[in-house]
Amino acid sequence: MGRYPVATAGHFGATNSLKMKSLSNPRWRRVIFKISGAALAGEPENVGNKVITMIAKEVAMANNIGVEVAIVVGGRNFFCGNTWVAAAEIDRSTAYQIGMMATVMNSMLLQASLEKLGVQARIQTTVVMQEIAEPYIRRRAIRHLEKGRVVIFGGFGAGMANPLFTTDVAAALRASEVGADAVLKGISMDGVYDCHSRNSGGSLSFEHVSFQDLLARGFTAMDMTALTFCEQNGIPVVVFNLLQPGNISRALCGDQVGTLIDQSGRIS
C-alpha cells in the first residue's frame, strides 16, 4: 500500500483528527482532480451552488498546505453530447464541441469560487477564448502550479482540441504532462463497486484494486482509455465520492478515500 495507508473507517466527524493529520502531512505533491459534471448538477439549476462552494473550500484547504492542484471538469450537468446525438441526430463532433463549451462554464464557476476564498486560479483551454482563459501551455501550467495557483483545464476533449475524447482521457493526459502523482476522480458514489458481491443488500466497494482487475471486470465509472493510459504511465487513480464532506481535501492529500487503483493493487 506504500504511501496510501488504510485509514480507520467512519464518518467525517468521527475522523476529524485523522483528517487534520493527513492535511498537515500530504502524501501527494501534485495531483489532477477530475470532477464529474454530473456530480455538479443542482436542482433546479444546472449547477448546485453548495457543491461548487464545498469543492472550492476543500481544494483551498489542500492548496493552503502545499498540494499543487490541477482540475479537469466535465460538462454533463449543462450538456450531454451523447444524448443529443441519439435523440436529435446532431452530428457527433458538433455535439461534443458544445459539451466542451460546457466544461468551460464549469471551469469559470470553479475559478470564481476559488478566488472568492483568496486562492489564485487560472483556466487553460485548447479552445481559443483569450478574454476568459489562457491557451494551454504545458510549461506555463507547471509554473502556475509551482507558484501555488490552481490550474483548471477546461474546453478539452483529450487536451488536443479533439471533442471525441472524454474529459477522463484529458485528465490522464494532463497528469502525464505536468508530472502529477495521481489522478483523483470525484463522482457521486463511494468508489468502485463489485457488482457481483452482495452485502446487506448492497454492492461492496473496493479499497485497493489493480488496473488489470478493473479492466477484466468491465469497470465503467471511468473511461477505459484513460485507465489504460494511467496504467502505462504508472499514475495511480483514486475514485471517490466528492459529495461526502471532507473527502476532497483528504483525497487531495493522499488519505484513504474511495478506491485506489494502481499497478499492484489487491482486491480488499
Roughly how much helix do the residues carry, as a percent range? Answer: 25-40%
Number of H- or I-type helical stretches: 9
Number of strands: 11
Total domain units:
1
Regions with little confidence, pLDDT below 50 for 5+ residues? 1-18, 196-202
Q: Which radius of gyration do the C-alpha atoms yield?
A: 18 Å
Mean pLDDT: 81
Beta-strand content estimate: 15-25%
How far the N terminus sits from the C terminus, by CA atoms, comes to 11 Å
How would a crystallographer describe the biggest sheet?
A: 9 strands, mixed
- CATH topology category name: Carbamate kinase
In CATH's first tier, which class applies? Alpha Beta
Give the neighbour order of strands across the main sheet.
4-3-5-2-1-6-10-11-9
CA-based shape: globular
CATH architecture: 3-Layer(aba) Sandwich
* CATH H-level homologous superfamily name: Acetylglutamate kinase-like
Supply database-style keywords.
37% helix, 9-stranded mixed sheet, disordered N terminus, 268 residues, alpha/beta, cytoplasm, single chain, Asp/Glu/Uridylate_kinase, Carbamate kinase, Uridylate_kinase, Uridylate kinase
Quick rundown:
This protein is of the alpha/beta class and 268 residues long. The chain has nine helices and eleven strands. Strands 4-3-5-2-1-6-10-11-9 form a nine-stranded mixed sheet, with helices on both faces. Strands 7-8 form a two-stranded antiparallel sheet.
Blueprint of the fold:
Layout: H1 16-24, E1 30-35, H2 49-64, E2 68-73, H3 81-88, H4 92-116, E3 121-125, E4 134-135, H5 138-146, E5 150-153, H6 167-178, E6 182-187, E7 193-199, E8 202-205, E9 208-210, H7 211-216, H8 224-232, E10 237-241, H9 247-252, E11 259-262
Parallel strand pairs: 1-2, 1-6, 2-5, 3-4, 3-5, 6-10, 9-11
Antiparallel strand pairs: 7-8, 10-11
